[in-house]
Amino acid sequence: MFPERVSSLKVSGIRKLFEAAPPGSINLGLGEPDLQPPPEMIKGFVDALEKGYNKYGPSAGIMELREAIAAYLRRYRRDVTFENVIVTAGATEGMRIACETILGEGDEALVPNPGFIIYGPDVRLAGGKAKEYSLRAENRYLPDIEEIKSLITPRTKAILVNSPSNPTGAVFPRETVKALSDIAKDHRLYILSDEVYDSFVYEGEHLSFARFHNDTIIVQSFSKSLAATGWRIGYVATSKEIVQQLSKVQYYTLACPPTATQYGVLEGLKVIDRFQEEMIAEFRKRREVAMRKISEIPSFANAPVNGAFYMFPKYAQKMPSEKLALKILDMGVICAPGSAFGSSGEGHIRFSYANSQANIANGLDIVKAFMARL
């Protein structure tokens, strides 16, 4: 009754556990900062509503916001202008229209395993074929460059990357970014780069692929950087030619991003550096708490976490990750099964430390006591 590309879609393993959680559970499951957006941003949203900005806007977003985003992005690449930016309804919509814009029927895109849950489905919904490359703990969850080369065929159109990574917390070093960029240039591939966590780096630095490869399509969101997950606002930054095509696809998908919300984000961008400095200082402390507590659980082994706000420990027990996550949920702690992020995520559990230090400590103490009984 339904096409295979739709009927084959699976319900998110993250959402499944979140929606099944009993009241009062400690949420170490969702990747959602527990902070509020900057007050200037909220006021900008309210002011926009009162000024009557309640109508349709341009498909690519209001000019003022596109220019402000371009100014922000010039820290990564100096030649960025508003023509390189399209405002989207969050990174989720941005990734979807990016795949639909660059992939034709049967085109291949390399996607990470484990990786965020939307990548493979977005490729398939666009008519393409997702080919997985491995991220392994023994390689610090970085792509194996030789494996990437071996997966490329004449049908390969794009390499999808995510740094800092959800779910692993890995941050790609310069040599990895440069090597992948060189491969993409040699084979005339797009790099589809999810950089949503670019401000959440605790060791090293974030290097945008756009620094090294002109055919990079950056997918971004204000959900994490300005703690505005419910606002559903983000952007895609790439070449002017691709933005023109993205704008057409966005029109038939969304018509235009929400107008008043864009004016709110415009005010948020004026204070984003200050807001992020305070937020990252707090998340650095949370990371330390989470790392310490995870290390106290004997059956957990965790690779270094340099970015984002997740722990992705491998566990010793012989049990499917979804079953283990449900048992932990019964103890009152929400987490995400590693299998939600691909076959290579099996045997892992993802914990988010986008919660208070007290809740992180209490939640992981509960997990520690539970794992000791298994």
Structure description:
With about 375 residues, the chain is an alpha/beta fold. It folds into 2 domains: about 5-35 and about 275-374, Aspartate Aminotransferase, domain 1; about 55-270, Aspartate Aminotransferase, domain 2 (3-Layer(aba) Sandwich), CATH 3.40.640.10. The protein contains 14 helices and 14 strands. Strands 2-8-7-6-5-3-4 form a 7-stranded mixed beta sheet, sandwiched between helices. The longest helix has 24 residues, at about 270-295. The model has no long low-confidence stretch (mean pLDDT about 95).
CATH first level of the largest domain: which class? Alpha Beta
Q: Can you tell me the CATH architecture of the largest domain?
A: 3-Layer(aba) Sandwich
Strand content: 5-15%
Structural class: alpha/beta
How far apart lie the N and C ends?
43 Å
CATH homologous group name of the largest domain: Type I PLP-dependent aspartate aminotransferase-like (Major domain)
| Tally of separate helices | 14
Report the mean per-residue pLDDT as an integer: 95
- Tally of separate domains: 2
Helix content: 40-55%
Order of helices and strands: HHEHHEHEHEHEHEEHEHHHEEEHEEEH
Q: Tell me about the largest β-sheet.
A: 7 strands, mixed
The largest beta-sheet arranges its strands as 2-8-7-6-5-3-4
Low-confidence stretches: none
Question: Taking Cα atoms only, what radius of gyration do you get, to the nearest Å?
Answer: 20 Å
Shape descriptor reads globular
Per the CATH scheme, the topology name of the largest domain is Aspartate Aminotransferase, domain 2
